[in-house]
Amino acid sequence: MVRIFLNFTDKIFESDKAFRGINLKVGKILSEHKARGGMGITFGDGALLRELNKKYRNKNKTTDVLSFNLGDKKNIMGDVYISVPAAKRQAKEYNISLKEELLRLAIHGTLHVLGYTHKEMGV
């Protein structure tokens, strides 16, 4: 079993219904991969993602999602960071709900934590 921790850098995000159920969907994916451990999903702003992207990927620009795998495929210890402003823009661009886009980004990040590459994900 994997414990999933949702973190919000802004209380406004935390009260939004769009975030409900993300931990359950991500938990199902991790269970299907027989993963154990813990994973955090942090919902932040563009500045946070830009700072992390610069520090860890040497890219001085914001991004929609970043993933950090601190374990292995079976003993997950990882973090996923999602830019809420980017998710809002992309939801509008793709003509989907914010909840759908947040879930898509959470799943994308989770698959990276599990070790999948963009090529393996068909991205």
The gist of it:
47% of the residues lie in helices and 24% in strands. The chain is of the alpha/beta class and 123 residues long.
Helix-strand makeup class: alpha/beta
Continuous helix count: 6
Kindly report the name of the CATH homologous superfamily.
Metalloproteases ("zincins"), catalytic domain
Report how far the terminal alpha carbons are from each other: 28 Å
Order of helices and strands: EHHEHEEHHH
C-alpha Rg (nearest Å): 14 Å
Q: How many distinct beta strands?
A: 4
> Which blocks of ≥5 consecutive residues have pLDDT under 50?
none
Kindly provide the name of the CATH class. Alpha Beta
CATH architecture: 3-Layer(aba) Sandwich
Q: How many discrete domains?
A: 1
What would you note in describing this structure?
The protein is of the alpha/beta class and 123 residues long. It has a single domain (2-121), classed as Collagenase (Catalytic Domain). It has six helices and four strands; from the N terminus they run βααβαββααα. It has a four-stranded mixed β-sheet with strand order 1-2-4-3, with helices on both faces. A hairpin with a 5-residue loop joins strand 3 and strand 4 (75-83). The longest helix is centred in the C-terminal third of the chain and has 16 residues, at 98-113. The radius of gyration is 14 Å and the shape is globular. It starts with a strand and ends with a helix. The model has no long low-confidence stretch (mean pLDDT 88). One of its GO terms (molecular function) is metalloendopeptidase activity. InterPro entries: MetalPrtase_cat_dom_sf_prd, YbeY. Keywords: Cytoplasm, Endonuclease, Hydrolase, Metal-binding, Nuclease, Ribosome biogenesis, rRNA processing, Zinc. Belongs to the endoribonuclease YbeY family. Its EC number is 3.1.-.-.
